[in-house]
């Protein structure tokens, strides 16, 4: 297995907007043609249901993996989730990539209240994530809870920011997604505020230490909320102040998720992120679809 600094890059894109069948299929095709390895969807009320959207994405594409980035563990009963995961993986010929997290603290309460569900504390969210991962593995191994022939559980991505979630991810996941958001007062995530490079480096180092011998088997992922192709890098970093108000422009330029510059500069930043943090799997938002295409080409 390659070392973390030699592992080939993978690129994912989170597509948020589903307007109609034709446009969704076309967007998915464009993402595949741009070189992305994974098309992913989110898990929020008021937006497209993840599994039907991914099923249509599978019909529109040929090679990309199809991911959830990420399912909220507090939303889904494990037995029903196993059924849905196994069905989608079966019908997409094994292209599913299953992402789970404990739920975004700033958004989950609104989602849960609208659903008439209790709003868990941070500790209860972490309990739910741990329970979901354990139940998924147990139930998926039981043929009574899933359709079709026996297949392995799809690659599992677990996202987290705190040590408890990251420790779970290092122990159980095939892909560890290191959350780059900053903690605000009261331990809440100050979205859309993102942490500085030092904080993210500490999280990535914690994961690498927890992985131990598994470090060559597990991918480290991060989200890139901003992809800006420009010749005026400093000015573009100034305009990202709303995403990281506590950081200077120079400090924002060190954040692994702020990909800013010419395609060559962004490609070099991604290479540095692999060396410094161990990140080899980069997930961008849908606004970065066209901007990332030349960058991906440079890194193949």
Automatic annotation (TrEMBL):
Keywords: Flavoprotein, FMN, Monooxygenase, Oxidoreductase. Residues 16-280 form the Luciferase-like domain. This is F420-dependent oxidoreductase. GO terms for molecular function: alkanesulfonate monooxygenase activity. SUPFAM superfamilies: Bacterial luciferase-like. It comes from Nonomuraea thailandensis. It comes from the Bacteria. The lineage of its organism: Bacteria, Bacillati, Actinomycetota, Actinomycetes, Streptosporangiales. NCBIfam families: F420_MSMEG_2516. The keyword Oxidoreductase applies. Signal peptide: none annotated. The keyword Transcription does not apply. Gene3D superfamilies: Luciferase-like domain (3.20.20.30). GO terms for biological process: alkanesulfonate catabolic process. InterPro entries: Lucif-like_OxRdtase_MSMEG_2516, Luciferase-like_dom, Luciferase-like_sf, SsuD_RutA_monooxygenase.
């Amino acid at each position: 297995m390659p070392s973390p600094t030699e592992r080939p890059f993978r690129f994912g894109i989170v597509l948020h907007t589903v307007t109609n069948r034709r446009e969704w299929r076309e967007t998915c095709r464009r993402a595949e043609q741009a070189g992305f390895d994974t098309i992913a969807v989110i898990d929020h009320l008021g937006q497209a249901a993840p599994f039907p959207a991914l099923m249509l994405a599978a019909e529109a594409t040929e090679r990309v993996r199809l991911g959830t980035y990420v399912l909220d563990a507090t939303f889904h009963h494990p037995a029903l989730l196993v059924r849905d995961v196994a069905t989608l993986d079966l019908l997409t010929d094994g292209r599913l990539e299953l992402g789970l997290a404990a739920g975004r603290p700033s958004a989950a309460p609104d989602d849960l209240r609208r659903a008439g569900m209790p709003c868990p504390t941070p500790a209860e969210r972490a309990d739910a994530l741990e329970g979901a991962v354990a139940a998924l593995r147990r139930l998926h191994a039981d043929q009574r809870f899933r359709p079709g022939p026996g297949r392995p559980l799809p690659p599992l991505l677990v996202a987290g920011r705190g040590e408890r979630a990251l420790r779970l991810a290092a122990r159980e996941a095939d892909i560890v997604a290191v959350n780059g958001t900053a903690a605000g007062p009261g331990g809440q995530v100050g979205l859309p505020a993102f942490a500085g490079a030092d904080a993210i480096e500490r999280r990535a180092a914690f994961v690498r230490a927890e992985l131990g011998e598994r470090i060559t088997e597990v991918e480290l992922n991060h989200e890139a909320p901003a992809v800006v192709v420009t010749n005026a890098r400093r000015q573009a970093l100034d305009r990202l102040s709303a995403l990281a108000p506590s950081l200077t422009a120079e400090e924002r330029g060190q954040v692994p998720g702020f990909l800013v510059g010419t395609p060559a500069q962004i490609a070099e930043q991604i290479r540095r992120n692999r060396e410094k943090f161990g990140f080899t799997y980069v997930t961008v938002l849908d606004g970065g679809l066209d901007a990332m295409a030349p960058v991906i080409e440079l890194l193949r």
